[in-house]
Automatic annotation (TrEMBL), chain A:
This is Dolichyl-diphosphooligosaccharide--protein glycosyltransferase subunit 3. The lineage of its organism: Eukaryota, Fungi, Dikarya, Ascomycota, Saccharomycotina. The chain crosses the membrane at residues 179-198, 214-232, 270-289, 301-325. It is a multi-pass membrane protein. It holds the Pfam family OST3_OST6. Belongs to the OST3/OST6 family. Gene3D superfamilies: Glutaredoxin (3.40.30.10).
TrEMBL record, chain B:
Residues 528-583 form the STT3/PglB/AglB core domain. It comes from Zygosaccharomyces rouxii (strain ATCC 2623 / CBS 732 / NBRC 1130 / NCYC 568 / NRRL Y-229). Residues 31-431 form the Oligosaccharyl transferase STT3 N-terminal domain. This is Dolichyl-diphosphooligosaccharide--protein glycosyltransferase subunit STT3. GO terms for molecular function: dolichyl-diphosphooligosaccharide-protein glycotransferase activity; metal ion binding. It is found in: Endoplasmic reticulum membrane. It holds the Pfam family STT3-PglB_core.
Length: 344, 734
């Protein structure tokens, strides 16, 4: 009888001691500069599985290069921003703005090298990254999975915040974006350079600015960029190139005439520039060369040679263009491939 | 006929060579030019007739059905009645002030053509006038392009540009027979306006400037894209001023155009006071003011030849600019000037629409363009175009600045929004024609080949080689255009062509089947709920009242229909009852493999309604646990319970004897996935299941909720699982 009383008393005391306090969690958070608790095989049971009255957000991820998870690395930065913003408003990790006081801490479990953390096997993870939100209490099996949106950047961070707000009933969770100093410094530097150029070399600058071929090149290049689907890449955020079945590089997204890789813009840009250059050559360079060599013995050979070279250049690039178009649209009936196969 | 277009191009190149002064040569030249124009006109019209020949003389797609309906209204009523038309059969129960919210240019033009033909004793059905409208106007576009390019370079380049314009797929895409849309007439007017503008700024002629203004007015009455002209002409002037090329001709041309054009454009009811109140039009006003100041400055300069003039000029210009911009912001802030429209924002800030206006982002015409589309629409002009821009830069006369500004701006716009490819196409044709004509000027000129009765062989060979390759590309261009027109741009989309397993072509006519069923079997004032894409077609073909249609003026109303589609039955029933709808129409492509169906558009319905009711609708709930958009067993509960899912797949697995295969999504639907439908009753499903119609059930006569009634019914007839397809018990009305 006495033993029983003693045992129950002991378990009560032990439970109280075992329960993890907010101060303890705060201390653990402070250990890292990002205010994120590192979950290890040794401490995860204690942090997640013992009684507490704080919410804990856990980020399960892998920064190991062998895993090669690009989303994880993106999400890690966003997670850091999340934690930083939270602790900026709530240095103690406690929010009093809601109906009742609520505290929130952030933790991370990262697969860094080949060793798989126990948390991963404990929750039977097959995919990373994952976000788990543990409510107050202390049941290690009871958590809420927060979905990760596909688009990256601020949109995703705001999505996470709104989910956390919804689940925890914490109304005041603001995101503080770090100032983008690089942009400001670049703008300042270029402004300085331009004004310096104007001040010191006024003549030269105005000469450059009124140079017609320069303007022509810039705007022709701009047009070529637009025709190559540059805006598509920008809006859709398409990837640079694809990977084929055997792990080889795929430059052109096949069978898709309404979608493309970023590298396709570069390739078509080169082709269009080559074609435009050849046309300009035919119109301007050949007559110029002819008048330069006029009267000399080379005159005919230069004229014929240059015009033939430009004509062949046009043909080769155009054939190349149709043959890559054939990849995008199989069965295209008018390629110039028969001759272009020589140039492949 | 297409081969005529080919010979046209080859011949046209020779015209600049014939510069002889004798009257015979001039005669031949005139006859040749005339023949070439006839051929171009023929090629333009005939290459747009594929759809009529392969299908029938029918109005295409969605928007043309509204234009057609409005035109019919116009020819049966007076013009004033047309302008005051309040249409109570759309946007039920709100109705639409149609006369005040449409661009009447298209309808009035075809109405005038119809009246004219009737007057001269050719009574043609108004439908045929509408179907043949776009091909006929494309011939005029070619003519305007000729005159435009003639001002830019010479008549040789003009003929090339006209021939390109006649058959280039980028323009044909919106002007085939049956595509009776505002763009059909707008591109013609765009080119005519620009042509007169170039003439006006070259000569400073008030007549030409007034003609520019008149055609600008016509353009305003026909298409919302007139804003492009409103901004391009001021930009042209502005850049010319910056280049220090101000002269009195520019002054008279611009001020005449601006004053007459703006006053005239305000006469269109839909435009009204926008030209002085909306930010889209402020650039034109600003340049108008600037031009007065610059003119004044020039006047002062001639009077006081002071060295300080320059400084005074710069300071006053900067001051005026700052004051002007500040005033613009202030007036916008205090609400005197309307801010830019959503479509305008989405051109500059490419993510704006995605975040703020899902209804704009949802339209397929507003998607960005990948490079193959450019090549597909213009073939080899796409690489002649940058070369042409470069060559024009080297000449850089005042009118060349216009073409360059147009090219640069529009290539950006077309990259952002696929529908603006249409405005880019004319300038591609012009710039490419300039480049090609410059090549032909050098290499088709054989006048120096025969020197002192001796043939210069090397000269001849190089010339022949270069010109023949380019003529070869021209031939290839004609083949490419014909292929594209035949393959991509000649389907009416009301009737779908399909190939059977044994290779025969069959026409799938489900849309008209369903619309005709509606016309015959429902009450005349029945209200049909459907997604907005089909509103115009239901109005035009079934002649029934619709809740929402393609004129997306009321986002909330559209979101309400989207919410009804995305909610569980009970809730949808309540919403649709409040809207007084009688039938619900859904498009289901699962059986046919038609990917443009409502299940694929469904996420936009969710997104649009989520924008208004974020507490009730959440996009994520419609994805499966793994975050995918699925319609089979792994679909989320919310997805399976929503009205759209239930209506699309009702009875579908049973059709296959238990395992329905959705050919669009490539997923298998089991009978257990499709929950029973209690509040709606299937009344019609078309032959290929493309269109499915449901009627809202009447309230239960015993006062139970319809769900309880349905549950009771199912529990009593559980053994008899076979579904009875009930014929609608309405009489046939003819």
């Amino acid at each position: 009888m006495q033993y029983q009383v003693l045992l129950s008393l002991w378990s009560l005391v032990a439970g109280l001691c075992m329960a993890i306090t907010n101060d303890n969690l705060l201390q653990r958070s402070r250990k890292s500069s990002d205010n994120i608790i590192e979950l290890t095989d040794g401490n995860y049971q204690r942090i997640l599985g013992t009684g507490r009255n704080a919410w804990i957000m856990v980020f399960l991820t892998s920064s190991s290069p062998q895993i090669g998870c690009a989303t994880c690395i993106e999400a890690a930065d966003e997670y850091k921003l999340l934690a930083k913003s939270w602790f900026k408003d709530h240095p103690e990790g406690v929010s009093t703005a809601g109906e009742e006081e609520a505290s929130l801490f952030f933790a991370i479990s990262d697969l860094k090298d080949s060793k798989i953390p126990e948390t991963f096997s404990f929750y039977g993870l097959e995919h990373v990254p994952k976000f788990f939100l543990f409510g107050p209490g202390g049941n290690i099996r009871e958590y809420e999975t927060i979905e990760l949106m596909s688009g990256g950047g601020m949109e995703r961070v705001l999505g996470l915040v709104s989910d956390i707000k919804k689940s925890t009933n914490i109304p005041d969770f603001n995101i503080y974006q770090p100032m983008n100093w690089s942009l400001i410094s670049i703008v300042a530097f270029t402004t300085f350079c331009i004004s310096y150029m104007f001040k010191r070399h006024y003549e030269l600058t105005t000469k450059i600015l009124s140079m017609r071929p320069l303007w022509a090149l810039v705007w022709t290049f701009f047009t070529i960029l637009m025709l190559g689907g540059y805006m598509f890449n920008l809006i859709r955020g398409s990837q640079l190139a694809g990977v084929g079945e055997n792990g080889d590089l795929v430059y052109f997204l096949p069978n898709q005439s309404s979608s493309q890789f970023r590298i396709e813009t570069q390739i078509t840009g080169v082709i269009y520039s080559g074609l435009a250059a050849a046309v300009v050559g035919l119109v301007l360079a050949v007559p110029k060369l002819k008048s330069y060599y006029k009267g000399t013995s080379k005159s005919t050979i230069v004229e014929v040679g240059s015009s033939v070279v430009f004509a062949i250049m046009v043909y080769a690039f155009f054939a190349g263009l149709t043959s890559i178009y054939e990849i995008k649209q199989p069965g295209y009936p008018y390629p110039l491939t028969k001759v272009s196969s020589l140039f492949k | 006929m297409v081969t005529t277009g080919k010979s046209t191009i080859a011949e046209s190149a020779k015209t600049p060579v014939l510069t002889g002064k004798s009257s015979l040569v001039r005669w031949v030249q005139t006859v040749l030019t005339f023949t070439i124009f006839l051929a171009i006109f023929g090629a333009a019209v005939s290459s747009r007739l594929f759809s009529v020949i392969r299908f029938e003389s029918i109005i295409h797609e969605f928007d043309p059905w509204f234009n057609f309906r409005a035109t019919k209204y116009l020819v049966t009523h007076s013009f004033l009645e047309f302008l005051n038309w309040f249409d109570d059969r759309t946007w039920y129960p709100l109705g639409r002030v149609t006369g005040g919210t449409l661009y009447p240019g298209l309808m009035t033009t075809s109405g005038a053509v119809w009246h004219l033909l009737k007057r001269i004793g050719l009574p043609v059905d108004i439908r045929n006038v509408c179907v043949m409208f776009a091909p006929a106007f494309s011939g005029i576009t070619a003519l305007a392009t000729y005159h435009f390019t003639k001002e830019i370079k010479d008549s040789g380049a003009g003929l090339l540009a006209a021939a390109f314009m006649a058959i280039v797929p980028g323009y044909i895409s919106r002007s085939v027979a049956g595509s009776y849309d505002n763009e059909a007439i707008a591109i013609t007017l765009l080119m005519v306006t620009f042509m007169f503008w170039i003439k006006a700024q070259k000569t400073g002629s008030i007549l030409h400037a007034t003609l520019t203004a008149l055609f600008y007015f016509y353009m305003v009455s026909a298409w919302g894209g007139y804003v492009f002209i409103t901004n391009l002409i001021p930009l042209h002037i502005f850049i010319l001023i910056l280049m220090g090329r101000y002269n009195a001709k520019l002054y008279s041309a611009y001020t005449t155009w601006y004053a007459i054009g703006t006053l005239a454009s305000m006469q269109i009811p839909f435009v009204g006071f926008l030209p002085i109140r909306s930010n889209d039009h402020m650039a034109a006003l600003g340049v108008f003011g600037l031009l007065q100041l610059v003119a004044f400055g020039h006047f002062v300069k001639t009077k006081v030849s002071s060295d300080k003039f320059r400084v005074v000029m710069i300071v006053s210009l900067a001051l005026i600019l700052v004051v002007g911009v500040a005033a613009l912001f202030a007036l916008t802030y205090f609400g005197f000037i309307a801010p830019w429209t959503g479509r305008f924002y989405s051109l500059w800030d490419t993510n704006y629409a995605k975040i703020h206006i899902p209804i704009i982002a949802s339209v397929s015409e507003h998607q960005p363009v990948a490079w193959p589309a450019f090549f597909f629409d213009t073939h080899f002009l796409i690489w002649l175009f940058p070369a042409g821009v470069f060559l024009l830069f080297l000449d850089l006369k005042d009118e060349h600045v216009f073409v360059i500004v147009y090219s640069v701006l529009c290539s950006y716009f077309a990259g952002v929004m696929i529908r603006l490819m249409l405005t880019l196409t004319p300038v591609i044709c012009v710039a490419a024609a300039v480049a090609l004509s410059k090549i032909f000027d050098v290499y088709l000129d054989f006048s120096h080949t025969m020197k002192n009765k001796k043939v210069n062989v090397s000269n001849l060979v190089s010339r022949l080689l270069v010109s023949s390759t380019f003529i070869f590309y021209l031939v290839l261009f004609v083949f490419h255009c014909t292929w594209v027109n035949k393959m991509a741009y000649s389907s009416p989309s009301v009737v779908l062509p399909s190939t059977t397993y044994d290779g025969r072509t069959v026409l799938i006519d489900d849309f008209r089947e369903a619309y005709y069923w509606l016309r015959l079997n429902t009450e005349e004032d029945a209200k049909i709920a459907s997604w907005w894409d089909y509103g115009y077609q239901i109005g035009g073909m079934a002649d029934r009242t619709t809740l929402v249609d393609n004129n997306t003026w009321n986002n909330t109303h559209i979101a309400l229909v989207g919410k009804a589609m995305a909610s569980p039955e009970e809730k949808s029933y309540e919403i649709l009852k409040q809207l007084d709808a009688d039938y619900v129409l859904v498009i289901f492509g699962g059986l046919l493999g038609f990917s443009g169906d409502d299940v694929n558009k469904f996420l936009w319905m969710v997104r649009i309604s989520e924008g208004i009711w974020p507490d009730e609708i959440n996009e994520r709930n419609y994805f499966s646990a793994t975050g995918e958009y699925r319609v089979d067993s792994s679909a989320s509960q919310t997805m399976k319970e929503c009205l759209m899912y239930k209506m699309s797949y009702q009875g579908y697995p049973e059709l296959f004897g238990g395992q329905g295969i959705d050919k669009v999504r490539g997923q298998t639907i089991l009978p257990s996935d499709v929950l029973p439908l209690d509040y709606f009753e299937e009344v019609f499903t078309s032959e290929n299941w493309l269109v499915r119609l449901y009627q809202l059930k009447k309230e239960d006569s015993e006062g139970r909720s319809l769900k309880d009634a349905g549950d009771y019914e199912r529990s009593t007839t559980k053994s008899n699982k076979k579904k009875n397809f009930k014929k609608p018990d309405l009489d046939l009305r003819v």
